[in-house]
Amino acid sequence: MSDITIRRASEHDIATIHDLAWRIFPQTYREILTPEQNDYMMEWMYSEANLKEQMTHGHQYLLAYDGDTAVGYVSVEQQGEHLFHLQKIYVLAERQGEGLGRHLFEAAIALIKSQHPEACAMELNVNRNNRAVTFYERMGMHKDRSGDFDIGHGFYMNDYIMRMEL
Question: Which among 25, 74, 76, 78 has a CA at the least distance from the CA of 47?
């Protein structure tokens, strides 16, 4: 991992995030979501217009690179005076297990702490059937609550909301 760098993304990186998302998200959720829900969520979260809208309204993206190749990303959004939400964290499937997820997770915490040095919390939503739940538990998060969230068009996100104090 010596060539791995993480840097703040800007609107100039929207196409890179979009391309990574299309390589990662459908594969991650192929056994959890129907193809119809996957397509809906990809448009909802990862169209270039929606990525720009997210960045305009407070989502801060970090991109992980191995040399010149983007291999993952994370997004954080402040949702309250002392609450941040880890919106997205994804690594290319062929690069999972190398510590990139941990590296991105720690970079997200560092970003939060640089902007909010006092005590705060970070939460995230994760599908209850996603094997990433155990990753987040290893990172120090705990299952705080769960919910079924209507995202439109008859689709729901069936998530745990995980939390950690920072």
Answer: 25
